[in-house]
Structures are given as C-alpha cells and as structure tokens.
Write a structure and sequence with these properties.
Layout (H helix, E strand, L loop, with lengths): L1 E6 L7 H15 L3 E6 L22 H12 L2 E7 L7 H10 L6 E2 L10 E2 L5 E7 L4 H8 L2 H11 L6 E7 L7 H26 L1
Parallel strand pairs: 1-2, 1-3, 3-6, 6-7
Antiparallel strand pairs: 4-5
Helix pairs in contact: 1-6
The chain binds flavin mononucleotide.
C-alpha cells in the first residue's frame, strides 16, 4: 500500500507539522510506503501556468513528481490550517497544478454536460485541518466550507468516495495535553484507515 502525504503550513513548530509527522510515522509503522511533502519547505510554486490549462503534462519536474506519486498512491493525505474558510494558497496551488487532467481526471472535448471522466476511483482521501473557530459557529455561520471543498469539489469530482476529515479546534485555546490527545487520535485514525483500505483491496 502507498500513501501520499501533503502538508501546507509555513511554520516548522506548528501543530500542523506535528500532525504531518504523526501521520507519516504511523503510516510507516503500518508498513505503508510513504511519499511525504512539506510544500513550503520544498519551495513548491503554487501558481498554475498558462501551459497547464489544457491536458498536457506540466514541464515543472516537481509537479510531475507529485502527480506521479498521487496517482500511484492508495491513500491521499492533506494537512493544512483553515485560512479564511479555505486552504492556504500553497495547498490551493497543489490542487490547481496536480489534481488536473489528464491524470487526476479527464475532461474530453465531448464530455457530456461538463462532467469529468474520473480516474481516481477507489483511492481514499483524508484531510486534517486546524482552526480557531468553535464547531457550532463553523457549521452554522460559516457553513464549514472546507468540508465542501474537499469532499465534493475535489475528491468527489475525481471519483474519490472514501473520505475522512477531522478538524482540530480551537488550537489557540488548546492545552498541551489536548494536543497530545489529538495526535493519538490521528494515530488511531491512520491504523483504522490502513486496515479498511487493506480490506478494500483484497
Ligand atoms: C491568514 C489566516 C487566516 C485564518 N483564517 C481563519 C479562519 O477563517 N477560521 C479559523 O478558524 N481560523 C483562521 N485562522 C487561524 C488558523 O486556522 C490557526 O492559526 C491554525 O489553525 C492553528 O494551527 P497551527 O498552530 O498549526 O498554525 C487563520 C489564520 C491565518 C494566518
């Protein structure tokens, strides 16, 4: 089993980095081959170019590497904070430049009703987010936009139906003990997801 783990957070000491490290460590302990990328540390350029608007593969070697790894992976992990109800621009750039035709989905000229031909069916999409907003306000006032962005607009669009997302909140009010418990939750999620994905393959 293979996993791609993508992090977008600029500060090495962040809780997001702690989640990233725990995901990668837990996957390795489960015997999963892990390809992990800290987008800021690797200097990823999040801006989609004019030549990437169509179906031609990118000329950027890092984009091609990320895309190859995503397509080879059974489990796709994405870790980022809630910034204005959206992923940071760095993660948005990954979505724009990596999750595109013809590999992540296809959009032939004769596609009926603009519906994509999905190519990532069967993969498992997992998202960890952090925020400083109470759950009630996030859901009822803001409408939890990250749930829609990931579950439907991104994974669902590409044929990925197996989905797990968890939001850790409120980070600014959290104690060290709470954050340690959150990391334990990440570990048990990973063990469960690897087990589920393994059964799905047999
Ligand atoms: C540019 C920016 C925008 C933010 N927007 C939101 C927001 O819309 N909702 C929210 O709950 N927190 C927001 N935050 C707070 C971050 O989500 C919070 O600092 C982060 O999740 C904490 O995790 P960390 O310690 O790993 O950085 C924002 C922070 C920044 C820097």
């Amino acid at each position: 089993m293979k996993a791609s783990v993508i992090l977008a957070h600029p500060y090495k000491e962040s809780f997001n980095h702690a989640v990233f490290n725990r995901v990668c460590g837990s996957l390795a302990e489960c015997g999963v081959a892990v390809r992990s990328h800290d987008l800021y540390a690797e200097g990823f350029d999040p801006v989609l170019t004019g030549s990437e608007l169509g179906r031609e593969p990118s000329s950027d070697p890092l984009v091609r590497q990320y895309a190859d790894e995503m397509m080879e992976s059974d489990l796709l992990f994405f870790i980022h904070p809630n910034w204005w109800g959206q992923p940071p621009a760095m993660m948005k750039g990954y979505i724009d430049r990596i999750i595109r035709p013809p590999y992540a989905y296809d959009m032939p000229d004769d596609a009926p009703g603009g519906l994509p031909v999905t190519t990532m069916d069967g993969k498992y999409g997992i998202v960890y987010n952090t925020s400083n907003t109470a759950e009630e306000r996030e859901n009822n006032y803001f409408g939890d936009p990250l749930e829609l962005i990931w579950k439907q607009c991104t994974f669902g669009f590409c044929g990925i139906e197996k989905f797990h997302r968890r939001m850790f909140r409120i980070v600014s009010d959290s104690t060290e003990t709470e954050r340690m418990q959150w990391l334990e939750t990440v570990e048990s999620d990973v063990v469960r997801i690897v087990s589920e994905a393994g059964k799905g393959r047999s």
